[in-house]
Amino acid sequence: MPLSVQLLAMSQASLRNISGFIKTKGKTHFTLSDAQPAEVIIIDIDTQEGKDLFLQHRTNNTQSHIVTLSLSPVKDDGISSFQIQKPITGVELIRTAEKIKSLAKKNKASAKNNILDKYLTKKKNLRKKKKKHKKY
Q1: Closest alpha carbon to 42 in 5, 3, 89
Q2: pTM here?
Q3: Long-range contacts of 71-77 (CB under 8 A, 24+ apart)
Q4: What DSSP element (H or E) covers 41?
Q5: Is the preceding omega at residue 37 within 30 degrees of 0, hence cis?
Q6: Strand order in the sheet with 40-44
Q7: Alpha helical stretches, state H, the chain
Q8: CA 109 to the chain's CA centroid
Q9: What whole-number distance in Å separates Cα of residue 2 and Cα of residue 100?
Q10: C-alpha span between 76 and 63 (Å, rounded)
Q11: How many whole angstroms separate alpha carbon 32 and alpha carbon 41?
Q12: Percent of the chain with pLDDT over 90
């Protein structure tokens, strides 16, 4: 299933190129979306507007994965984001989509395991309580 994506703070040329790729060869991985919040937000951080949007989204929007585009690599500051160095290629966009899907799948499995663990722990505690009451 394709990831919903928003493209922010890009030149018209970049916007046209990336959206064109998404609509053709990248359509199995991404779908352009105006919905808030999209699953993926791609931001060009070489502009001040992009830097501001990046800071805003990383602090206020924990549901979306952020992909940054930049001419030079950005120091990893421990934030859950993905970086693509310009000039970008379709292959890099697809690799990033696959990483995001893999991460989402792991998070979903982890959340499922946490729910199961909580259920089993609760059930185990209930059994212990029942045993204590039977002794009397």
Answers
A1: 5
A2: 0.76
A3: 71/46, 74/45
A4: strand 40-44
A5: yes
A6: 30-32, 3-8, 40-44, 65-70, 81-85
A7: 12-23, 48-60, 90-135
A8: 15
A9: 11
A10: 20
A11: 10
A12: 56
b/e 52-63 (16+ beta carbons within 10 angstroms → b): ebbeebbeeeee
Amino acid at 43: I
49 token code pair:
């507007």
Q: Tell me the torsion sign for CA atoms 23, 27, 33, 37.
A: negative
Q: What is the pLDDT of residue 9?
A: 95
Tell me if 85 sits within 8 A of 79, measured CB to CB: no
φ, ψ dihedrals at 128, nearest 5°: -60, -40
128, pLDDT greater than 80: no
C-alpha distances out from residue 14 to 28, 85, 129, 133, Å = 20, 13, 63, 69
